[in-house]
Amino acid sequence: KTTLIIDCDPGVDDATGLLMAFAASNIDLLAITTVGGNVPAERTARNACILRQIAEREDVPVFAGAARPLVREPAGAGEFHGEEGLGDMAPFVPAKGAEDEHAVDAIIRLVMSRPNGTVDLVAMGPMTNLALALRREPLLAERLKQVVAMGGARSEGGNITASAEFNIWADPDAAHEVMQSPVPVVMIGLDATHQVRATEERIRTIEAIGNASSKAVAGMLRFSQRVERTIVGWDAAPLHDPCTVAYVMAPELFRLRPAEIRIEAQSDLTRGHTAVEMRGDVLEARHLWAVKADAEGIFDLIGETLANAGVK
Ligand code: BDR
Ligand code: CA
């Protein structure tokens, strides 16, 4: 079993990743922490609680975190996620809300109270909470087993500017601090996630499972399909954040290359650019960059996992 904390900004693709993790029998989910990103922080925390309720996983605590990036002004991505962050789903007041403890305190407490190398952290949004936690407790970098982050772009180019992917662009200073720290990071960027497309057939397969989590996921995927067709002109939307959960569950579904990843945080033109160095003697580097994702395998995994939703 993987012991996991998920830091996220739901967000329709975060929602799919969360519902998958809630249903996964081989994940021991310690906590969900939330950050402002796709939509403002109050909404990402509320959305995580709504998704937890749909999954009937009130045993997993939700901790709300940073509302603002380290330096930049907050920027949303409501056009890709809906103003409330859950696509077409009407938000409701969840029966159980977030805990009082701040996400940054919770991450430090939960990881530092466990043995070295036993907790994975998945980052599905801007890395603000993680950067703040590393500032407060630098030993966290050695205590975490690995960070598996959705972020960055190399050969695909960006999705928010020519250079930058949204999660890195939204808080480049936080991403810079995380990537400069000794924490091992597996970065799954657009080069890999663009290979994972929610085709109509794949959406139907998930919908047909018929439980509350799979219906919610199918709704999110349909929303993304519509938005992607309208705004980007692609027939099938890429599935970004769930790749991180898929990686934790089945790393063999990805091909990774050792890399040294640096973040451009200063330039106006290339803010949030991920400089992925894979030349020469970076084989000992602490970063891994995803170059290939097995889309068929990932969708099979999502289906098998969601089929177990609600079964404890
Ligand atoms: C990333 O940005 C957000 O809009 C998505 O939730 C995902 O985390 C993709 O660039
Ligand atoms: Ca996200």
From TrEMBL:
InterPro entries: Inosine/uridine_hydrolase_dom (IPR001910), IUNH (IPR023186), Ribo_hydro-like (IPR036452)
Keyword Lyase: no
Domain Inosine/uridine-preferring nucleoside hydrolase: start-end pairs: 4-296
Annotated keywords: Glycosidase, Hydrolase
Keyword Hydrolase applies: yes
Domain of life: Bacteria
Signal sequence range: none
GO MF entry, a single one: hydrolase activity
Name used for this protein in its record: Nucleoside hydrolase
Source lineage: Bacteria, Pseudomonadati, Pseudomonadota, Alphaproteobacteria, Caulobacterales
